[in-house]
Amino acid sequence: MSYDFLLASWGTLGNLSPLLTAARRLHRNGHHIRVMADPAMRSEVEASGFAFVAWRRAPTGKAADPVDVSDVKDFLRQAVFDPAALYAADVRDEIGRMPTDAVLVLDVLFGAALGAEASGEPFALLSPHVSNRKRRKSAPKSTPPMPGWPKHSMCFCQVSTARVPIWVFRLSQMSTICSIGPTGFLLATSRVFDFQADSLPENFRYVGPLLDVPNWSKSRQTEAWRAPWSAQSGRPRGLIACSTGAQGQRELFQRIITAMEAVEIDALATAGPNVDVADLRAPNNVHLVRGAPHDLVMKDVSVVISQGGHGTTTRSLINGLPQLILPMGRDQAANAARVEAKGAGLQLPPTASEAEIAAAVNRLIAEPQFRKAARLLGEAMKVDIDRSGLVDEMEAIAAIGRAARPQPKKQPLRKSA
């Protein structure tokens, strides 16, 4: 049976990519997909073959995803709570415009979930992050629920009851809705990478990482990719990957690059869309580019240095690579905590000196236990990817929506004269 799915994304390509991976899997199973996202994402969505719908009332660009994340409470207010009613209205309008059996929403879009709820459609939230559970058997005691997030800021359906009171959303405009709860919560990470929780809500599912290569990367970079280092060089190679999100990371990225001058390594540094390559200086052993296909680069390096976004962290582990992570915010510290706790890498604060960064990279290169741990963890994560239940979960949710939708009344057959 074919279903109609509406997928809602937020912010940058880094957030859109896992949602498009989910869209491709659903489409391969015969379902109809349309994607609601920032207007800047139109080309990426349409290149994937899906119908694109732009946010109309909801904020877009930097208004939707503020650069400054130093004050987490203020970031959540600007990006999540204040515009939630606008996201809700846009989703409700779109559901009214086209038949929709179920909605898949990135977990930060609380308002979009409210719009689905108000329309009477079942929905799931997709979280391309680790769990925000407060109690975990395997987590170090010093690990906070989600490093960098205030304790009172509960991630939508990662709370124990999977239902959040309306006051959390500060939506006086939608006071008629008392509480909301997703039909399903799909955690797009590997269970073996995450810390083990004492208990999980019934609607909570691990569906494995969603890591399709973005179209812009495949079309613009893969064909043109040439390794910058000599095949005869006997030195280790590394990838320095700057975040695709805007976090004011230029100074940190420069410090990492400069630190490589003190390391016997050949490195490729990818600046990404939010740091200007012209503003950076690189020593002779670092090749600086705006972007490169990380899947290909990771086949050719022995260490990765990054801020610890979920995509880069997961790709590195799947390729068996130890990592140095310098988290700046969002989910990066949570990823770093898991990498370090599982012995697959090290983490430093974003204020770390060049000497500290160089020393950590030298350890990752010289001490084989990091690479061994990364390889073993990566192999286990591949198994989780291969047995992902994302399509089955969404089909089950859509079946609920289809069954609840009013069916047209059948006209009685007329008796022949």
Commentary on this structure:
This protein is an alpha/beta fold and 417 residues long. The chain has two domains: 4-212 and 387-402, 3-Layer(aba) Sandwich (Rossmann fold); 216-381, Glycogen Phosphorylase B (Rossmann fold), CATH 3.40.50. Helix content is 34%, strand content 14%. The protein contains 13 helices and 15 strands. It has helices spanning 13-28, 42-47, 72-81, 84-97, 110-118, 215-222, 250-259, 294-297, 310-318, 332-341, 354-366, 368-386, 390-404; strands spanning 4-8, 32-37, 51-54, 102-106, 123-127, 164-165, 179-180, 184-187, 204-206, 237-241, 266-270, 286-289, 303-306, 323-325, 345-347. The strands form three sheets. A seven-stranded parallel beta sheet has the order 3-2-1-4-5-8-9, with helices on both faces. α4 crosses α5 and α7 crosses α11. The longest helix has 19 residues, at 368-386. Residues 144-180 have low confidence and may be disordered.
